[in-house]
Amino acid sequence: xxxxxxxxxxxxxxxxxxISGINFHEFCAMFANDLCDCVEDxxxxxxxxxxxxxxxxxxxxxxxxxxxxxxxxxxxxxSGCDRSFHLPCASKxxxxxxxxxxxxxxxxxxxxxxxxxxxxxxDTTCIVCMEPVGDSRSYSTMVxxxxxxxxxxxxxxx
Length: 158
Hints:
Residues 1-112 form the PHD-type domain. This protein is an alpha+beta fold. The chain is built from four helices and eight strands; from the N terminus they run H-E-E-H-H-E-E-E-E-E-E-H.
């Protein structure tokens, strides 16, 4: 109900859950506006049926700035920004979703950047998948903030 994509990747969108006949992905609910309180440590998130219904109804009127379809439940965490999107559209729209602490999301104009000035050397490979990362910084690549030598694809880290 929150992303309208029943076949979404469970590694990125979480387990499929159901409450009172409303089916949704765990992470779609955690990133949705005002739907889940901050989850600490290994606590299970708690979702209220009334809040789920309210969120689904609001989303029926909200367009995703990435795909243009209704049903967007996530709004950019930047104060004053009203861009909304579906969790499955986040990476396509170069949005950043932070899978920790407050589970915040940011649109492409407001997402945090790594405060580093390094660029990958020619022939640098991702240490997760061992595929090339390219020779310049981009949304799809990240560098280890500690050593500034190891490079990753954003999708591999996520």
